[in-house]
Amino acid sequence: MTRVPRGYIARRRRTKMRSFASNFRGAHLRLNRMITQQVRRAFVSSHRDRGRQKRDFRRLWITRINAATRIYKVFDSYSKLIHNLYKKELILNRKMLAQVAVSNPNNLYTISNKIKILN
């Protein structure tokens, strides 16, 4: 029986999956079924961890702001600082506040003074 050359669609699909697996090792790089499974698993992990990364960074920023407010005695706690910021309509997100708290605590004093002046 003679050999029948098949179409290119399946080969194109496998090549695409193989391009995603270019940094894998061992069988995860060489065997098509294993490549498909590992790439699918990697995509699931990356999708899940994008949300997790946002949560983790928000927790980090809150921890930094809380530590700075207690160390430099700006307010008693993080929650009071945030409450007063919202009450006085000073819109600063947690990422910016954490950067200010870590890099330049004097600016944290300035922000707290603005809150206290507006009382």
Automatic annotation (TrEMBL):
This is Large ribosomal subunit protein bL20c. It comes from Chimonocalamus longiusculus. It is found in: Plastid, Chloroplast. Its main location: plastid. One of its GO terms (cellular component) is chloroplast. GO terms for biological process: ribosomal large subunit assembly; translation. GO terms for molecular function: rRNA binding; structural constituent of ribosome. NCBIfam families: rplT_bact. It comes from the Eukaryota. PANTHER family: 39S RIBOSOMAL PROTEIN L20 (PTHR10986). Binds directly to 23S ribosomal RNA and is necessary for the in vitro assembly process of the 50S ribosomal subunit. It is not involved in the protein synthesizing functions of that subunit. Belongs to the bacterial ribosomal protein bL20 family. PROSITE patterns: RIBOSOMAL_L20. Keywords: Chloroplast, Plastid, Ribonucleoprotein, Ribosomal protein, RNA-binding, rRNA-binding. Pfam families: Ribosomal_L20.
